[in-house]
Amino acid sequence: MPGSDFVMNIYLYKPFSYSFLTKNYPEKFRFSQEIQMLGKNTLTELRDIINCISDTGLQAEVDSPTSDISHLQKAKEKYPSASFFIDGVFYNDMRSPRAIDYSEEIIKWAENRKVGTFTSADMQTIRLNSLSPRFGYPYVYLHQGDCEHIMVFADAHILTANDCLSSQLYPRMYAMNRGVSVMCYMCNIHAAQWLIKHYARLPQETTFLCTKCTQSYCYKGGEKIGEFKLYPLFNKFVDTCVTAEESRTSCSAVSASVS
C-alpha cells in the first residue's frame, strides 16, 4: 500500500583499474545499473540482483578454442563470496559453505596500520531500513576476489501510488547501461570471444580475437603456432538499456495479473 514502506534507488558503477601513481588515468568512471529496493529488503537480495560480467565466467587459461569451458561459466557458484562496505562495516555474504570472510584480512591490515576500526556482519540479517547511509556517498561492493564496484545510495522516498506496488518485484533492476561488445582485432566483424596474451605474432601484448580468427591465425592442425596464453572472453552484455519507463510498464503488467 502507498505509505507502507520507502523506496531507495541505488547506483552501481563499472569496476575500473586505478593507480595512485598515475595522473590523468585513462579509464572512466561509468554507470552500470540502478536498482530499486524497499526498506524491508535485505542486502543479500541486493547482492543477488546485481549484474556483473565477472560472475559469468572465470578467466582461466585453456589450450585451444575447441576446449570445453563449461566448467568456467558459473563463476558466481564457484566463488560465492561477496561483501558490502558501508560506513565502516563489512557486510559479508556467508550463505554458502564455500564462502570466505573478505573482511577478516582487511580488518587485520587496518588495525596493524592504525587506519581505523572496522567491524563485520552477515548481510543476510541486515535490512535496508536498519542502515543509515549517506546519500551520494561512495560505498563499495566487492566480489570475485578483487572485482570492486562503487555503490551509491542515490535517493529515497515513501511509496506512492505512482510506484510499483507489487512487493514481490523488489528489489528490481530499474535501469541498466547499454553494453557494447568488444570486436575482433583482426576482422572487426565478429565479437571477440578469446583473449590472447604474450604472442610474438601479434602487435599488442593483449589482443581480442573471434573464434574464426583465433583458429586460422594462431593454430595449425590443432596445434599452437608459437607460444601464447589463451583465455575465454565472456563477452555477455545486455543488448538494450532497461529504462525507467519499461520497468514501470513491466510492473504494471505483473500487478494487473496478480490482482
UniProtKB/TrEMBL annotation:
Keyword DNA-binding: yes
Molecular functions per Gene Ontology: DNA binding
UniProt keyword annotations, A-Z: DNA-binding, Nucleus, Transcription, Transcription regulation
Superkingdom, taxonomy of origin: Eukaryota
Compartments where located: Nucleus
InterPro entries for this protein: snRNA-activating_su3
Pfam families assigned: SNAPC3 (PF12251)
UniProt entry tagged with the keyword Ribonucleoprotein: no
GO cellular component, one term: nucleus
Entry function: Part of the SNAPc complex required for the transcription of both RNA polymerase II and III small-nuclear RNA genes. Binds to the proximal sequence element (PSE), a non-TATA-box basal promoter element common to these 2 types of genes. Recruits TBP and BRF2 to the U6 snRNA TATA box.
Family matches, as PANTHER family: SNRNA-ACTIVATING PROTEIN COMPLEX SUBUNIT 3
Family stated for the protein in its record: Belongs to the SNAPC3/SRD2 family.
Assembly and binders: Part of the SNAPc complex composed of 5 subunits: SNAPC1, SNAPC2, SNAPC3, SNAPC4 and SNAPC5. SNAPC3 interacts with SNAPC1.
Protein known as: snRNA-activating protein complex subunit 3
Lineage of producing organism: Eukaryota, Metazoa, Ecdysozoa, Arthropoda, Hexapoda
